[in-house]
Amino acid sequence: MKITAIETRLTRIPFDMGAKPVAFGGVGWQALNTFWVRVVTDSGLEGWGEGFGHACVPATRAAFDTQLVPALLGQDARDIAGLRARLSRMLHLFGRNGPHLYALSALDIALWDLAGKAANLPLWRLWGGTPRPRLRAYASLLRYGAPDLVAAACQRAVARGYRDIKLHEIELPMIRAAREAIGPDVRLMVDCNCPWTVGQATAMARELSDLDLTWLEEPVWPPEDHAGLARVRAEGVPIAAGENAGGLQEFRAAFAAGSLDVAQPSVIKIGGPSAMLEIAALATAHGVRLVPHNAYFGSGYLASLHLNATLAPEAPFERLFIDLEASPFGDLLSADADGTVPVPQGPGLGADPDPSVLERYAMGSPTLHREG
Fold first, then answer.
1. 8 Å CB contact between 244 and 52
2. Which of 54, 100, 293, 369 is catalytic?
């Protein structure tokens, strides 16, 4: 199954979050920016992938177009492990995290999509998962920055059937407003996006101790300070992290430091499904719960569904609490009234993106690379 062509493209799809977006993480949340990869083979099969993400999609695309593509054309698309090993070694001089790893993630997703299509199996079945038509999802709210807006968003999420809600707030009034709005029976998580020193995070953990948080996510800067994170964890609030990790070895260091209750690798950042499967095995060996990170709606969203269904079927699936102007995958991106999301049943990822949506929301023109 030789790779004969590769296409890359960007899309930008506006969304509604129920209030004016508040910038955080260097991102002005007005729309969802996505980097797409299509791998074409001489078998007639095509695989789709997605690489992180949001404001940095042009950098990820540049890394893919200029450095991965020349090494991929003419290669055997079935050699997922071999291509991953060779390309990782070839590219390590340019950094073990960031756009090159994100580009490798997009490739890995596309190759697994091809593998599933070639076997005529959904990826969860190919990986040995148990049939599961739907997963419980949690509403992952963007940052609202005001107690009344946070409370209103939480109430909307509960009205839509969610029983698990995650905030991206870093101030106590907003977090307390959320708990008051949803009551004691809805589970609440807080993702801070690495804002505090260890001392500040420890103090905040104490302030939050009466709110019954399911987890406190990435409270410490820098995210690689595993020893510092372990000190915050000692306060008794469950700690989650991992979306910024650079690979298996960084999770190994986090587990060794005792810094995590919940590991959160992100499939379009960590190296694709191949890396996720390795990290899941390591997390199991260390007794750490796996709850994959998922803050996107491209092919990585579908890959995350398959991975959750295979590796963490009882864990809640992260779904950004936004309404896209258009869905690249139709109803596969929708949450039901009971707060659950569908697991794809078709071969590979289960669906290819709608070409009319990709064209309508294109950021520039697609680039098609052909062999020879």
1. no
2. 293
- Give the model's pLDDT for residue 159: 98
DSSP 293: B
Q: What is the Cα–Cα distance from 116 to 95, expressed in whole angstroms?
A: 30
Q: What pLDDT sits at residue 118?
A: 98
Q: Using CA atoms, how far apart are residues 290 and 91, in angstroms rounded to an integer?
A: 28
Per DSSP bridges, beta strands 31-41 and 187-191 are unpaired
Region label for 74, one of left (φ > 0), alpha (ψ between -120 and 50) or beta (otherwise): left
Distance between CA 277 and CA 274 in Å, rounded?
A: 5
Name the token pair of 184: 């004691």
Are the C-beta atoms of residues 186 and 363 closer than 8 Å to each other?
no
pTM, two decimal places: 0.97
Give residue 20's pLDDT. Answer: 85
Known active-site residue 226:
no
Tokens of 361: 């929301």
Distance CA 21, CA 34 (A): 18
Predicted local confidence at residue 354, as pLDDT: 98
Q: Which residues of the chain have pLDDT under 50?
A: none
Contacts 24+ apart (CB under 8 A), 278-283: 278/248, 279/248, 279/251, 280/307, 280/311, 280/312, 282/248, 282/251, 282/252, 282/255, 283/251, 283/255
Tens of pLDDT, residues 125-142:
999 999 999 999 999 999
